[in-house]
């Protein structure tokens, strides 16, 4: 186990000073994902947790990166809540998962794992052990969609029925009415990554996400993270940016990674000026075909299932919210605090809903 403060650093890796990168990269984890890579955690700690207490738990065949924070000291799985991706600890086998779960619970601190994949080796082992040593609060959440790629996805359009194929052709014709259509798939070098990322962020900010304040540009935590991660991932050769252009304009963009035999879609956005031709859908079609053509096994949508993802993916990785409270005074205090916070949130949502109803009735 390594415990230390993460201090601001421009070039040197404060995380690596606590735990050598060679240990991370020497792991051969079950179900590898970008969220288990060293560079993912490096970007988390460099941008989100400056001057926070890092708790890096290492056992034979396992690594879990936490940050200890809060007035009531709590272990948060690094980046899990801020980035909302299906992250979990890295472990080589069931025995390593057991050792890692014990190492986490031995701290006798409240633990928040975010919304990790449910039903994995680690999730089941941690749940069984946590229930014997404290209170484990779980709740199912939306899953993360994915496509199992095969040869048929090289011509993705052919997988749809005639009506859907006609829809895509109509979208393409509408796009071509506004200018020449082109698709670009970039594997940026480190010196190119920042410029391409900023272009993609600008496109996303021109979509409906700007109104709901869910674009990367509106979230400083995610903005800082992806700027750092883009540079690190480009150095590893796994960072990807995809564009659909109509004439000289970027109509849609994707921020992605290609690693561990899969294509990982972090963010997608489109310019609403081109909404009539559904550029996000057209880019998705080309992107999936590209992934299949490169021989990748899966196309991972990450995040949470939504109406638009159901159009593409019929499979989901179930996810579960995990909060653990040990049987001690600290665990009891943390539980009371979280229950009170949930109560305030529900009351706030109720009041907001009532105000909307009154406004719609003309009484507000």
UniProtKB/TrEMBL annotation:
List keywords of the entry alphabetically.
Answer: Transferase
Which InterPro entries has this protein been placed in?
Acyl_CoA_acyltransferase, BioF2-like_GNAT_dom
**Span of domain BioF2-like acetyltransferase:** 162-308
Q: Which GO terms describe its molecular function?
A: transferase activity
Family annotation (SUPFAM superfamilies)? Acyl-CoA N-acyltransferases (Nat)
Tagged with keyword Transferase: yes
Q: Name one Pfam family in it.
A: Acetyltransf_6
Superkingdom classification of source = Bacteria
User: By what name is this protein known?
Assistant: Acetyltransferase involved in cellulose biosynthesis, CelD/BcsL family
């Amino acid at each position: 186990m390594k415990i230390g403060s993460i201090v601001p650093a421009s070039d040197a890796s404060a995380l690596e000073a606590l735990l050598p990168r060679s240990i991370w990269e020497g792991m051969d984890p079950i179900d590898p994902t970008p969220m288990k890579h060293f560079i993912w955690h490096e970007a988390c700690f460099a941008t989100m947790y400056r001057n926070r207490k890092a708790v890096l738990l290492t056992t034979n065949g396992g690594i879990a990166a936490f940050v200890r924070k809060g007035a009531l000291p709590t272990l948060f799985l690094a980046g899990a809540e801020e980035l909302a991706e299906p992250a979990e600890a890295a472990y080589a086998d069931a025995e390593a998962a057991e050792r890692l779960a014990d190492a986490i619970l031995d701290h006798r601190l409240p633990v928040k794992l975010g919304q990790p994949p449910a039903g994995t080796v680690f999730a089941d082992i941690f749940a069984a052990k946590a229930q014997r040593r404290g209170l484990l609060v779980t709740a199912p959440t939306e899953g993360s969609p994915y496509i199992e790629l095969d040869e048929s996805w090289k011509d993705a359009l052919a997988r749809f029925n005639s009506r859907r194929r006609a829809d895509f052709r109509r979208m393409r014709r509408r796009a071509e009415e506004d200018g020449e259509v082109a698709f670009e798939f970039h594997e940026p070098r480190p010196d190119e990554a920042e410029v391409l990322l900023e272009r993609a962020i600008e496109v996303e900010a021109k979509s409906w996400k700007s109104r709901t304040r869910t674009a990367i540009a509106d979230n400083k935590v995610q903005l800082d993270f992806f700027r750092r991660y883009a540079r690190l991932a480009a150095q590893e050769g796994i960072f990807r940016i995809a564009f659909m252009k109509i004439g000289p304009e970027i109509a849609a963009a994707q921020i992605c990674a290609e690693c561990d035999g899969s294509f990982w879609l972090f963010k997608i956005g489109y310019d609403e000026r081109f909404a009539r031709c559904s550029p996000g859908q057209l880019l998705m079609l080309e992107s999936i075909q590209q992934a299949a053509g490169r021989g990748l096994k899966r196309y991972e949508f990450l995040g949470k299932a939504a109406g638009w993802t159901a159009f593409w993916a019929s499979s989901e990785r179930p996810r579960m919210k995990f909060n653990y409270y040990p049987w001690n005074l600290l665990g009891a205090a943390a539980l009371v605090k979280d229950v009170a916070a949930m109560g305030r949130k529900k009351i706030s949502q109720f009041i907001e809903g009532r105000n909307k109803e009154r406004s719609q009735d003309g009484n507000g």
